[in-house]
Each structure stands twice: as C-alpha cells, then as structure tokens.
Write a structure and sequence with these properties.
alpha+beta; 5 helices
Length: about 200
Amino acid sequence: MILPDGYSDVPSGKIAAVVTHLEMTARPPLRDDPVGAWRLRPVEQPGLDWFRALYARVGEDWLWFSRLRMPDAELAAIVQSPRVEIYALVADGREEGLLELDFREAGQCEIVFFGVTAKLIGTGAGRWLMNRALERAWSQEIRRVWVHTCTFDHPSALAFYQRSGFRAFRRQIEIADDPRLDGTVPRTAARHVPVIE
C-alpha cells in the first residue's frame, strides 16, 4: 500500500516511525578510533534473559521493543544461530552496548541491533563500536552490509551511519502498537514520542 501525499492519521494506541534503510557495498576506510577503555565481548549462545535485559537497557529510550515481545523460541532461533554474532560492548566492567550481526543471508551482513546505553552516548563509544562492527562484517565473504534506523532513534543516528560509510536506499513507514501501553517498555520510555491513547 502506498500512502497518499499529505497527512495520514495514526490510530490511537499506535506509533508510527519513518524507517531509513542504509547500505554499503564495499569495505570503507574506518574512521579513527576515539580514545576510550572499551572492549568487545563476543557472546556465544546468549541466554534470552541476558539478551533482553541488555537490549532493553540500550534501546528503551528509542522504543526498541520487537525482541521484548518476540516468543522465546523465535528469539532463540535468531540470537543463537551459528550465522548470527552477538557482542556486548564493555565499559568499566559493565555491559553498556549491544551489537548483533546477521550473516544468515548469503553474501551480506545486516547490522540488526547497534547501540550503547545513555551513559556512553557522546563519548565516542558508538564510533568505536561501529569500527568493530565493520571489521567483523567485512572479515566474512560478503558483498554488502546494511542497517536501518528510524525517527524514534537518537537524532544523530542517521548522520552517524552516513559518516560511517552507509548510503540510504529505502524508506518505509512502520506502524505498531505502542509498547508503553501494554507494559512491554516503561510508560516513561522515549519521552520524545508522545503517547496517544
């Protein structure tokens, strides 16, 4: 369905975001690593409670909710797949970032989830994590890396991906039930997105 030009109503209890898909088809030069004492910890066969807890800490302000609603078997099939790599960014001995790389489609890598906690935003940890993500992605036999962001994400997310070497190729509108209304995420999450009941 193509939305008509102009305004389209979003029903009460729903949220709507503009999603931008970005890709790169050649390994880019990495930006300089910022100074920081971060490390990347691979998490093989992540436990679902562990994954959801870190996912929620990193994504609550940006309304990440899909993996919180996902049935256990479906989530396990993804995050415990041998073709999916899960990493935690560790700062001061605590997990403060999440990276999920999906190699299940031949020849490409999707950066499915990428982010750091509010504590690390603006410290350079995101750029450091992106450098590690691109190193890992391009270490495989692939032709393409892609990622998506949306208007619920940090206001600098789209420009960050573009500076990292990605180019936009698709835009969509995503409509979903507001996860704050059913308790999936706290009512106070994502204050930049109004709750309309």
